Amino acid sequence: MITLIKVRDYDEASDKAFEVMKEYLKPGKVLGLATGSTPLGLYARMVFDHEENGTSYQEIRSFNLDEYVGLPITHPESYYAFMHRNLFDHIDIKEENAHVPSGLGEDLEGQARAYDEMIDETPVDIQLLGIGSDGHIAFNEPGTPFDSGTHVTDLAESTIKDNCRFFDNDISKVPTQAVTQGIGTIMKAKHILLIATGANKAKAVKDMLEGPVDEVCPASILQRHEDVTVIVDEAAAALLDK
Ligand code: F6R
Fold first, then answer.
1. pTM over cut 0.90
2. 89 has catalytic annotation
């Protein structure tokens, strides 16, 4: 079941997302985390809450959705670096408990399977998601099987273009592959929190919520999950029937 929450803008979306996330900032909880522009406001609120209220992450574990293939973790645009810069370095989560899939090494598929095994042993309580303008979740591009596990994937042309802004607007610098949790992996999370803001997400939001459940729109599978919260701002909600 999807609970839809409509807010005015990005700031309100981040406030609402924090309200939902706050319930999970407790010892023993397992967070599924995302990168990209969408969660930055939420992460800023988590850092503020840690600093002001002393909310502790010592007994919290996390699993990120994805990572580019071939970028060293020291590269500022690696998702490992992103997570440290925007969240992990500012809270007290233990390094060994904050998992980001590795996009480096000889046996990426083997590492991907091991990542899924870890998630199976430590099920995710709340999975945070953004959505791509093509309806992707994590790096599961249109056409990805709904039952996929963590795997290596080619990025869609539109995603490479969308992410160009992080690589000096130079398309040749954007990695073309990523390791990503599969749709099947994501669907195992007990609660899913998806945030979508901005007009470039409006079509994907409509397809996700009101379209058929079809691999053409990866996010449409969320209609089959039992506990999803979707937070949309006015621009992202613009094409919705209701
Ligand atoms: C990030 C991720 C991606 C983004 C999506 C939206 O870990 O898996 O699916 O959530 O591309 O990106 P932004 O938030 O930058 O619009």
1. yes
2. no
